[in-house]
Amino acid sequence: MTELEVVINDARECAHLFRLGRDVEAGLAMVALIESAQPLVELMPGDVPASWSKLLALMLDDQQAQNWVSLADYLEYEWAQLLTAGRRK
């Protein structure tokens, strides 16, 4: 498994924690997840880093509003899609 695949898999696991209502555990996992993904995103071409910043802002807004379902959706779908698209460019 590549480092990128690990990050995507970890994002899906974090999303699952949010859906289970384990928001404290998921929040801590999300911090580690962002820290591990950031260096990968910075190396991606094109508009991926800018899109990444926008996605993080949306995720942090959801976290602040305690909108766990929306946050989980961002982690499971948008996060994976963005990182996968960045890898292909």
> How many separate helices?
4
What gap, in angstroms, lies between the N and C termini? 20 Å
Give the averaged pLDDT, no decimals: 93
> How many distinct domains?
1
3D shape: globular
Low-confidence stretches: none
Question: Which class of secondary structure composition applies to the elements?
Answer: mainly alpha
Nearest-angstrom radius of gyration?
Answer: 12 Å
Largest sheet: none
Strand content: under 5%
Explain what you see:
The protein has 89 residues and is mainly alpha-helical. It is globular. The mean pLDDT is 93. The protein has one domain. It contains four helices and no strands. The chain starts with a helix and ends with a helix. Helix 1 runs antiparallel to helix 2 and helix 1 runs antiparallel to helix 4.
Entry keywords:
globular; 89 residues
Layout of SSEs?
Blueprint: H1 3-19, H2 23-42, H3 48-64, H4 68-88
Helix pairs in contact: 1-2, 1-4, 3-4
How would you concisely characterize the structure shown here?
By secondary structure, the chain is an all-alpha fold. The protein is built from four helices and no strands.
